[in-house]
């Protein structure tokens, strides 16, 4: 039997050991406050489950209207990506950069020169130059209609070329479209031939100097521009003619295009708006070769109709 002193000492040691054991069983400060105070150990061999406590809730800072956006939680899938280019324009980002660069140069250089060209050269002279360059392409239009098996329109084109080259003073005056001939100008070329037989436009491109085009159109237009120089020869294949003729032709087109280009620049997305105008005009021209009309009005952004307002939309009947 223990003596009272020894028994008291043993009781004190037991209380101290119990206090140390209870302190060891208390969860660490990082544990969730609502976690169970004591958890029984799972039986030996049972699968262990790791419970990830939720992140601590941070109080709003003084003056903050709303808490910041929540960070991705453990196990949460976050999907990021970028907008894909629209169908038909896989090079959209590159084309947009080209469009912006061309517009910057146009505003700084080409537009002032085109406006000076408009003011310095009388309208009959500007129109005569455009008629001259259009008349030079009539052999290409004739060939395109023959390839499309449209001999009637091909003969009309040959008649236009003959009349305007002779009576129209080398094409400066479009006599053929007036009475008594009534032979209007109809643009055509290899790109239209390809489109007529079902060749798609291919990827859209915006190129310096060339402007809006497609793979089909750039191939066809390049061949069209080479036919007359190779078929006729001098002076149409010499730099002393090609360089000034190209500059005058481009200035004439830019001067006629000024009002439309200002409208394009005022749009929310000028690049996309210009692209839609071009593709819509090209589609309408291919449809016209098949005798099919388009429902929406077309704003010409190139060719002889450049600068002319589209026809008014039909008023819906009640």
UniProtKB/TrEMBL annotation:
Keyword Transmembrane helix attributed: no
Sequence ranges of Pro residues compositional bias: 309-318
Signal peptide: 1-17
Pfam families in alphabetical order: MlaA (PF04333)
Keywords noted in UniProt: Lipoprotein, Signal
InterPro entries cross-referenced by the UniProt entry: MlaA
GO biological process: intermembrane phospholipid transfer
Record GO cellular component, one term: membrane
Domain of life from the UniProt record: Bacteria
Region: Disordered, residue numbers: 298-318
Similarity comment: family membership: Belongs to the MlaA family.
Protein name as catalogued: Surface lipoprotein
Source organism of the structure: Sphingobium indicum (strain DSM 16413 / CCM 7287 / MTCC 6362 / UT26 / NBRC 101211 / UT26S) (Sphingobium japonicum)
Gene: vacJ
């Amino acid at each position: 039997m223990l003596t009272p002193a020894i028994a008291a000492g043993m009781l004190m040691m037991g209380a101290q050991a119990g206090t140390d054991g209870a302190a060891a069983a208390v969860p660490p400060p990082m544990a969730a406050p609502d976690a169970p105070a004591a958890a029984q150990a799972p039986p030996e061999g049972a699968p262990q489950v790791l419970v990830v406590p939720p992140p601590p809730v941070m109080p709003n800072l003084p003056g903050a209207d709303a808490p910041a956006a929540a960070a991705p939680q453990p196990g949460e899938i976050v999907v990021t990506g970028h907008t894909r280019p629209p169908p038909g324009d896989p090079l959209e980002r590159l084309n947009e950069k080209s469009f912006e660069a061309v517009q910057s140069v146009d505003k700084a250089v080409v537009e002032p020169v085109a406006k000076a060209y408009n003011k310095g050269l009388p309208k009959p002279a500007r129109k005569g130059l455009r008629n001259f360059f259009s008349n030079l392409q009539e052999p290409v239009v004739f060939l395109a209609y023959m390839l499309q098996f449209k001999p009637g329109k091909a003969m009309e084109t040959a008649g236009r070329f003959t009349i305007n080259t002779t009576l129209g003073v080398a094409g400066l005056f479009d006599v053929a479209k007036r009475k008594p001939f009534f032979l209007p100008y109809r643009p055509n070329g290899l790109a239209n031939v390809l489109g007529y037989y079902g060749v798609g436009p291919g990827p859209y491109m915006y190129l310096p100097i060339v402007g809006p085009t497609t793979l089909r159109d750039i191939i066809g237009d390049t061949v069209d521009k080479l036919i007359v120089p190779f078929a006729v020869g001098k002076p149409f294949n010499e730099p002393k003619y090609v360089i000034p003729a190209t500059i005058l032709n481009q200035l004439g087109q830019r001067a006629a295009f000024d009002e439309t280009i200002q409208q394009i620049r005022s749009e929310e997305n000028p690049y996309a708006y210009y692209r839609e105008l071009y593709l819509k005009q090209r589609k309408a021209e291919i449809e016209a070769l098949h005798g099919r009309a388009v429902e929406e009005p077309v704003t010409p952004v190139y060719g002889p109709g450049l600068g002319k307002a589209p026809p008014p939309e039909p008023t819906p009947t009640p």
